[in-house]
Amino acid sequence: MPPDYLDTRQLEAFVAVISIGSMTGAAKALGKSQPVITRLIQDLEQELGFSVLHRNGPRIAPTEQGVAFFAQAELFLGGLRTISEKARQIDKAQARPIEIAAIPALAASIVPLALGDLPKENFPHHVHVQSTASENVVQSVVARTADIGIASLPLDNPGIDVHWIGEVPCVAIVSENSELATKDILHAADLRGHRLIASANPYRLRMRIDKALTEHAIEPRGVIDSNATYVSLSLARAGLGVAIVESTTIAGLPIEGLKILPLDFHIPFYWGVITATGLPLPNTVRTLIAAIEQRAFTLPSFRKHDSLPNLY
Question: Which of 56, 92, 118, 308 is buried most, with the most CB atoms less than 10 Å from its CB?
């Protein structure tokens, strides 16, 4: 069984090796010798009880367990760096930084616009925007390594306060060279014979997309799963299918070579603005939450909910 606490030097060595791709590169990046990095990885594997790396001479690759562990190790080290930075800010009596964790769709759209609306004289000395999956957003807020989180629904965690829920309709995105690009609106029947590009997570937006297709008895020619909207846009631009995405991302990402088509059937995309339960909010955080809300109201067909909607 792994010990209660792992050595952060081992975690740092492991994350560096996976990120860079070699023991030699990790050693240079961390200012250590290669034998030291090798030993730290070996000690980590011994404490974990499983191998995190496949070794084939100079070539290394993460094991399946190593890939899963890497996500957690990277999240932990990111939080540790945040704590260290906050401690330095306290020591120097500097203005407190703002830590934002948001899903990619909103980290690339609403968040930059809301930050741009903050008064210049009160703008934080340091802002950290982390673009990550909803599950990691919630973890960061609960662990208090993020001041503000923006995650897609469902949200059901006793460690978070949901300030409000936003809703926008999904839209279809196709290549400007697609035969569908001549349309002004996409009907459910138009999806027949076309490949679907959609969110991979079956418990969030994908659940509502699949429900809508079932209600209209539509079975696409095939499906490409995507874990981020900007990836879906790139896949659509390459002519690989019809992307069904939330309309928030369009406010922040380039859409050259693409045609945006409203849907004649409704697929809602919900997201929530969250903070840690019971945590006093500094004025800068409250101001940013208000700015996010104001910017959200500029989105086409945006609706605000003060309570969690029924998703099922």
Answer: 118
In angstroms, how far is CA 43 from the centroid of its own chain?
32
Average pLDDT over residues 231-249: 92
Nearest to 241 by CA among 250, 252, 230, 233: 233
The pLDDT tens digits for 172-200 are 999 999 999 999 999 999 999 999 999 88
For the CA atoms of 143, 166, 307, 118, the dihedral, rounded to the nearest 10 degrees, stands at 60
Confidence (pLDDT) at 306 = 80
Q: Is the dihedral of CA 312, 273, 242, 183 positive or negative?
A: positive
Q: Which two tokens stand for residue 253?
A: 């990402």
**Sequence-ordered alpha helix ranges (H) in the chain:** 8-20, 23-30, 34-48, 64-91, 104-107, 110-116, 134-142, 205-215, 229-237, 283-296
What is the sign of the dihedral through the CA atoms of 214, 219, 225 and 230? negative
Phi, psi (rounded to 5 degrees) for 242? -100, 120
- Find the Cα–Cα–Cα–Cα dihedral 36, 41, 44, 49, rounded to 10°: -140
The model carries a pTM of 0.69
Please, which residues bridge with residue 61 across strands? 54
10 Å Cβ neighbour count for 307? Answer: 7
Rounded distance, CA 285 to CA 104, Å? 20
Spatial neighbors of 147 by CB under 8 A, at least 6 apart, are 98, 99, 100, 275, 281, 282, 285
Helix axes 8-20, 23-30, angle to 10 degrees: 120
pLDDT digits 0-9 by tens, 223-233 = 999 988 888 99
The C-alpha atoms of residue 160 and residue 104 are separated, in whole angstroms, by: 20
Contact 103, 155 (CB under 8 A): no
List the alpha helices (DSSP H) in 186-304. Answer: 205-215, 229-237, 283-296
